[in-house]
C-alpha cells in the first residue's frame, strides 16, 4: 500500500520525513519526481519556520529542530545495502535547506554588525582579536562550568551534562573528516592532524568516540536517559554543528564555530575532571575529558595558527564569516549552558548575552 503523502503533509514536514523510512524505492522515486508535492512541502516548511521564529511558537521550534535532527541522523549514519536504491536525498535536502535557512537566519539576527566588523586584516592580529571576542562573551567562562560544576556540582549534574554533550562529541570525528573536503596545504593538514587524534592515532581503544561512550556508560547516561533529559537548547546547538559541517558554503563559519569549540574545551573539561574526581567516580569514565585538556589546547593553537590566520591573510573578507561562526557557537553554547544551569540550580541567575 502506498503512503498517503498528502495526509502526512497535512500534519507537517516532520511526518513526511518519518514516512520516508517505510517507503519502497519505487515510491521514493515517484515522490522525488512529484514536483507539485515538493512545492507544497516547501510551503509547509516555510509556514513551520514562521510559526517557530516569527510567532515564537515553542512547539513549532521543537518540531523544526526534531525534523532537522532526523535529516542529520541520516546524513551521519552508515550506509545500508538494503537502501542502495532508496533515494531520499531530494526530499531531505528540500526540507533541510528551508529549515536551515530559518535557523541560521535567527542566529545571524542575534549578532550585532558592530561585533564582527572592523576586524584586523592581518592573520596574527585577527587571531588575537577573535580570542578577545571569546574571552569577553558570557560563554567564554560560563558559570555552569566555572562556578557550579567546579565548586559543588553533583554526580547527577555530571550525568546531565554528558547527556547534552551527545549533541556534538559522537560526531566530531566525522565533522572533521567533512571539513577536509576541498581544502589544501597546511590548512588541510591541520584539520587532518586533529582528525587523526580523534581516531586515537590509529589505536582503536583510544578512538575518542569510543572513550566518550565509555564516559557515558560510566556515569549511567544510557540512550533512554539521554532521550529523556536532552534539552531543546542542546539540540539546537547540535543541529547547527551539523549544518555548518555539511554545507560547503558555510565552511568559513564552521572554521570559526569549531575553532571556538576547541579553544573552550580544555578549561571546560578541567572543571569536569575536577568534579568527577571530587566524587571519586571510576577513572575509566574520565579518560576522554582528561585527554582533551591537553590535546584540545594544542588543537586550538594549531587551528588558529594554521587555519584561521592563513585564511584571513589570503582574503580578509573571510574574517567576517569566521567571526559569524564564532559568535553563533558562543551564543548557542550560552543558551544551552544557561538552560543546564537553570535545571541544576533553579535559583541561579542567567548570564547576560554579549551578542547584542
What oligomeric state best describes the polypeptide chains here? single chain
Overall number of domains = 2
| CA-CA gap between termini | 53 Å
What proportion of the residues is helical, as a percent range? over 70%
- For the record, what CATH class of the largest domain applies? Mainly Alpha
Would you list the SSEs in sequence order as H and E?
Answer: HHHHHHHHHHHHHHHHH
Q: Provide the residue-averaged pLDDT.
A: 94
Structural class: mainly alpha
**Tally the helices: what do you get?**
17
**The CATH homology group name of the largest domain:** Heme oxygenase-like
Shape summary:
globular
CATH topology of the largest domain: Heme Oxygenase, Chain A
- Structural Rg: 21 Å
pLDDT < 50 stretches: none
Number of strands: 0
Corresponding CATH architecture of the largest domain: Up-down Bundle
Most strands sheet: none
Residue fraction in strands: under 5%
Report on this structure.
The mean pLDDT is about 95. α5 packs across α14 (about 230-245), α11 runs antiparallel to α16 (about 285-315) and α14 packs antiparallel against α17 (about 320-345). Helices cover about 70% and strands about 0% of the residues. With about 350 residues, it is mostly helical. The relative contact order is 0.13. The chain has 2 domains: about 5-110, no CATH class; about 120-345, Heme Oxygenase, Chain A (Up-down Bundle).
